[in-house]
Design a protein that fits this description.
This protein is α+β, with helices and mostly antiparallel strands. Helix content is 44%, strand content 18%. The protein contains three helices and two strands, in the order βαααβ.
């Protein structure tokens, strides 16, 4: 089921910072990575002008016990 979340650059960066690979990185490495993502998002017309939709997809699996 495709859907999306409204985001801003800063809300996206905040969420990204909670992912374990980033949260556990050394502080300087984490800051550099998030700065790079922030600059990339600012450079793209789709995300630079305020709110954008982060596309997501949910997969549901149903199992039947026999």
């Amino acid at each position: 089921m495709p859907h999306g979340q409204p985001r801003t650059i800063e809300s996206f960066i905040a969420t990204l910072g909670t992912h374990s690979q980033i949260a556990l990185a050394p502080p300087a490495e984490r800051a550099a990575l998030l700065d790079n993502v922030r600059e990339y998002l600012r450079s793209r017309p789709e995300t630079a002008s305020g709110e954008f939709i982060r596309p997501l997809s949910t997969v549901a699996v149903r199992a039947v016990r026999r």
